[in-house]
């Protein structure tokens, strides 16, 4: 690339301004963004499955309506993110193909099962809480379309987190059996939620470059720490224990110390060997195949419209 384009790109990043679709950008920057944004979009779509399973089994009409709206929001997030990815010159159909062939990833967290209705609450509280910690800084990501998509997504995620916490509060005011369901869900989701932030900093191959380009604003470990610091007081208020014997307040650091997640488990889940990987991908593949007629009909309609305006 001509040096003046390279310099303009670097100056834009240095001034904390945005890179926009028509601006020149290094190939590596484009590739990293396609990887992260596509992976993020796939996660939103696959993330509809664990909670979606509970829509027909929600305990009341009110809970059903809330859960329905929430799962639908996740579909919307996936769509804004695929649109953001397309501004980088890739095609959504191709990204979907890459996911189905196992050449692109989606978040590890959606490979765990939802065993009871308290899981819906804990997903809202932990998983959407973790998503907020990770995504609020992404509103300042250097790539304009990605950063702007994050603004709306974060507003909706914050509603999702509150609905989860409110659901759990309600269950905690209920019977002993309901309180036990909440504690059981907390025990199962805590460590996988910490793993959402990715591997530890010294084992995170993409972090240094993504942070230099200001695609990522904070390291995986920093965001994980923020999540722990935010969540511990909420757990106390709710009346549940987090399953970590090493969790304690560190006066000197002004933050919580906590135990080490099982990184070998994260590796296994990322490489396809989690409790529900096969099921999630099979469902995603079936949905794609069952939706083929809709895509064909939409394409035929668009072609007809285009032919009409030409005449
Ligand atoms: N699940 C699946 N894959 C992961 C996870 C995870 N929890 N954490 C890291 N990985 C993958 C990375 O994608 C990378 O693989 P790749 O090079 O093939 O893409 C590899 O493990 C090494 O990790 P890092 O070098 O740390 O990767 P990166 O700098 O991309 O950081 C992170 C990972 C933090 C997930 C980042 O991509 C990110 O912030 N993404 C946007 C948020 C997002 O995708 N959220 C989805 C779940 S939240 C929700 O949708 C409700």
From TrEMBL:
Signal peptide: none annotated. InterPro entries: Aromatic_CoA_ox/epox, Ferritin-like, Ferritin-like_SF, PaaA, PaaA_PaaC. It is an enzyme of class 1 (oxidoreductase). Keywords: Oxidoreductase. SUPFAM superfamilies: Ferritin-like (SSF47240). It comes from the Bacteria. Coiled coil: none annotated. Residues 5-17 have a biased composition (Basic and acidic residues). Its EC number is 1.14.13.149. One of its GO terms (molecular function) is phenylacetyl-CoA 1,2-epoxidase activity. This is 1,2-phenylacetyl-CoA epoxidase subunit A. It comes from Streptomyces albidocamelliae.
């Amino acid at each position: 690339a001509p040096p003046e384009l390279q310099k303009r790109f670097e100056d834009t990043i240095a001034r904390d301004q945005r890179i926009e679709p028509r601006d020149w950008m290094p190939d590596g920057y484009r590739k990293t963004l396609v990887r992260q944004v596509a992976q993020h979009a796939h996660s939103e779509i696959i993330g509809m499955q664990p909670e979606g399973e509970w829509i027909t089994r929600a305990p009341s009409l009110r809970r059903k309506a809330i859960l329905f709206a929430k799962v639908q929001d996740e579909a919307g997030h996936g769509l804004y993110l695929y649109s953001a990815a397309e501004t980088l010159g890739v095609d959504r159909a191709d990204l979907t193909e890459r996911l189905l062939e196992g050449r692109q990833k989606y978040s590890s967290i959606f490979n765990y099962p939802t065993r009871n209705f308290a899981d819906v609450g804990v997903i809202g509280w932990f998983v959407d809480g973790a998503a907020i910690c990770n995504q609020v800084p992404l509103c300042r990501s250097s790539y304009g379309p990605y950063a702007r998509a994050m603004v709306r997504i974060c507003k909706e995620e914050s509603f999702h987190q509150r609905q989860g916490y409110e659901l759990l509060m309600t269950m905690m005011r209920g019977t002993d059996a309901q309180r036990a369901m909440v504690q059981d869900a907390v025990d199962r989701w805590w460590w996988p939620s910490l793993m959402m932030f990715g591997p530890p900093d010294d084992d995170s191959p993409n972090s240094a470059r993504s942070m230099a380009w200001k695609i990522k604003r904070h390291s995986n470990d920093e965001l994980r720490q923020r999540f722990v610091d935010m969540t511990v007081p909420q757990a106390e208020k709710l009346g549940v224990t987090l399953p970590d014997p090493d969790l304690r307040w560190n006066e000197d650091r002004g933050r919580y110390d906590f135990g080490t997640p099982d990184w070998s488990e994260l590796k296994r889940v990322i490489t396809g060997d989690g409790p529900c990987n096969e099921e999630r991908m099979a469902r995603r593949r079936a949905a794609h195949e069952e939706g083929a007629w809709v895509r064909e009909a939409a394409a035929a309609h668009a072609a007809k419209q285009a032919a009409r305006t030409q005449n």
